[in-house]
Amino acid sequence: MTGEEAKSQGISEAKEQEITRQELVERVSEHVNRILRRNLYELKLDEKQTFRLLRQKEELRRYLKEAGTGNLQVKEYLITFIQEFLLNGMKMDEEMIEHTFFFSEKGRKQTSVKFDILLFLYGEQYGSEALERLIEEHGLLSGTENVITEQQVDAVYAVCGRKLRFIEQIELLSRKIYAYYKGLGAIDEIRDMKIDGVSGGVSGKEGTYHSAWIFYHGRSVWLPFLDFEREEEVERIARNLCRYHQPGEISRKKGYLVHEMADHARVVVARPDFSENWMFFVRKLDNIPEVSLKQLVTGEHAEIPVELLKWLMKGCQVTAVTGMQGCGKTTLPTAMV
After folding, report:
1. Could you give the CA distance from residue 186 to residue 110 in angstroms, rounded to a whole number?
2. Rounded-to-integer distance, Cα 24 and Cα 27, Å
3. Residue 85 in contact with residue 30, Cβ under 8 Å?
4. Cα 231-181-58 angle, rounded to 5 deg
5. How far apart, in Å, are the Cα atoms of 288 and each of 146, 190, 291, 317, 335?
6. What whole-number distance in Å separates Cα of residue 203 and Cα of residue 129?
7. Contacts with 89 (C-beta within 8 Å, 6 or more apart), sequence order
8. For residue range 78-94, what is the model confidence (pLDDT) as tens digits?
9. Following DSSP, what letter does each residue of 31-64 receive, concatenated?
10. b/e for 39-66, b at 16 or more Cβ within 10 A?
11. pLDDT tens across 205-247, in order?
């Protein structure tokens, strides 16, 4: 059997059984490796074509190194690359995509998949404000509980969810493959939303890899339907988060790292033995509201601390702003300066 025949047979078999996420990630990885290892001079193309392919090859290599660091241009480039591979390399069609891990009968029943589809649909209309719109329009955090439950997501999907068109399925599937290939796994799309931040490996169900949290309007909110599935995945994401500009390796000797991402989001990563397990905190700084000190400091005699803070800044005095998580430690200095 020739290589092409074996490939065709593999595609035919894939249409008949569920194609797992790991299989798709491996297929994309193999495709990338073939491109990067290929000797273009063996193709005997003219100088202009060879130069163009060499430039594309180096561009792909550079973008792979920058993936998962908060650079949205890099992310969109790689997602488009994966889309082209699915359509042209794997010859994926409407029948085949219904057998992938995400759109199979089993996959569509998962709350995490329903959430991803809702976020995708809202993203088409609202962009990076998709998560905020989803939460506010359906009152997902209207109560006092700091959790968005599976039942809430299922209920919203029953009202707003719909079957995606083929081109939408290809784009969403490409985003999920990217997330687990070079991205940030279960929180890849959430990290890019206009929220205060996101964390993982902190607390949740039994096993720290069942822990995905967002920081939303000063509240820490647990998303129990999102799962990192294994400790190694949390480690992979944590290492990705602190790769921007290569700040140095996080090791047992240096068990934590405070760094920033390409979009200036602040990152704190910790690992054993410094902490019990791998964990990360991402604080987004592009969603800080522009407010004045008078809006932040209210109540009787509020003018006194407001004036004090103003003169501390005018006098260039060293000033510490402390407090618990989500209390406004970043918002206050922004208003002060």
Report:
1. 13
2. 5
3. no
4. 135
5. 21, 17, 9, 23, 10
6. 26
7. 27, 31
8. 999 999 999 999 999 99
9. HHHHHHH--GGGG---HHHHHHHHHHHHHHHHHH
10. ebeeeeeeeeeeeeeeeeeeebeebbeb
11. 666 678 899 999 888 999 999 999 899 999 999 999 999 988 8
Q: Is 225 exposed, middle or buried (0-12, 13-18, 19+ CB in 10 A)?
A: buried
From CA 8, how far away is CA 83, in angstroms rounded? 19
In whole angstroms, give the CA distance from residue 180 to residue 154.
24
What are phi and psi for residue 61, nearest 5 degrees?
Answer: -60, -45
Q: Which of 278, 277, 274 is nearest to 253 (CA)?
A: 274
Separation CA 249–CA 252 (nearest Å): 10
Distance CA 86, CA 24 (A): 9
Task: Give the number of residues written for the chain.
Answer: 337
pTM (2 decimals)?
0.85
Judge whether 214 and 198 are in contact, CB under 8 Å: yes
Residues with Cβ < 8 Å from 163, sequence gap 6 or more? none
Q: How confident is the model at residue 297 (pLDDT cuts 50, 70, 90)?
A: confident
pLDDT of residue 39 exceeding 60, the answer is: yes
Q: Write down the residue that tokens 């990885």 correspond to.
A: 29
Q: Tell how strand 212-216 and strand 219-222 pair up.
A: antiparallel
Q: Which two tokens stand for residue 160?
A: 């707003």
The residues with which 279 forms a beta bridge, in sequence order, are: 270
- Calpha distance 83→88 (Å, rounded): 8
pLDDT band at 4 (very low <50, low <70, confident <90, very high): very low
321 in helix, strand or coil?
coil
Reference 272, options 245, 243, 238, 247; nearest CA is 238
